[in-house]
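Bumping my old thread because nobody answered last time. Still need a sequence for this structure:
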């Protein structure tokens, strides 16, 4: 079965064309299914209808996907709806991984320093019986409960992790599109992200 990827990103990176480099590359590859993402007009329309409409849009776009690729630009880590997309992807069992895109040359022929890793600002607290994960986020260097998503059921946390809190960096890989040759290696990154 072909993998269908949901791309999570900050729309500023679309304006700079960096996000499009990765998204469009996937469209040209053999053995892949359509990428899941919505254009800015659909996003803007949902925003005018409120938070619930945005959650429904994201949830429906994640349906049928096997993996979520977070395209990491300068401000991705702080975007409310990117956080929701990441945590909702984890809840539904998608493979999740990140790709730094600031090293891609933009429309002005410039690059930027790498953005912060969003997985360092999100986490999970495993329940005492290891069957639930409570999402968390980092606010002003403090871990707090994440309010846009309720705790969710998981298969079973490893015994050593039960009852403990972990940032998502403990579980999810991040790559660099340019220095790690994303054009050639994206499919491998995707495969490694999928649950075994």
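Sorry it took so long. Here it is:
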């Amino acid at each position: 079965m072909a993998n269908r990827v949901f791309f999570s990103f900050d729309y500023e990176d679309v304006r700079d064309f960096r996000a499009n480099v990765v998204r469009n590359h996937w469209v040209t590859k053999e053995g892949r299914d359509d990428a899941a993402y919505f254009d800015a007009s659909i996003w803007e329309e949902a925003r005018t209808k409120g938070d619930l409409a945005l959650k429904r849009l994201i949830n429906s776009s994640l349906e049928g996907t096997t993996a979520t690729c977070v395209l990491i630009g300068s401000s991705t880590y702080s975007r409310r709806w990117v956080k929701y997309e990441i945590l909702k992807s984890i809840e539904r069992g998608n493979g999740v991984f990140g790709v730094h895109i600031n090293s891609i040359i933009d429309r002005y022929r410039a690059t930027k320093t790498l953005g912060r890793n969003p997985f360092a600002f999100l986490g999970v607290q495993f329940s005492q019986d290891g069957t639930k994960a409570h999402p968390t986020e980092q606010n002003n260097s403090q871990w707090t409960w994440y309010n846009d998503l309720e705790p969710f059921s998981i298969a079973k946390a490893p015994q050593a992790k039960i009852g403990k809190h972990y940032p998502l960096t403990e579980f999810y890989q991040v790559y660099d599109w340019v220095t790690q040759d994303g054009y050639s290696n994206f499919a491998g990154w995707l495969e490694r992200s999928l649950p075994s």
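Confidence is low (pLDDT under 50) at residues 36-41. Let me know if any region looks off to you.
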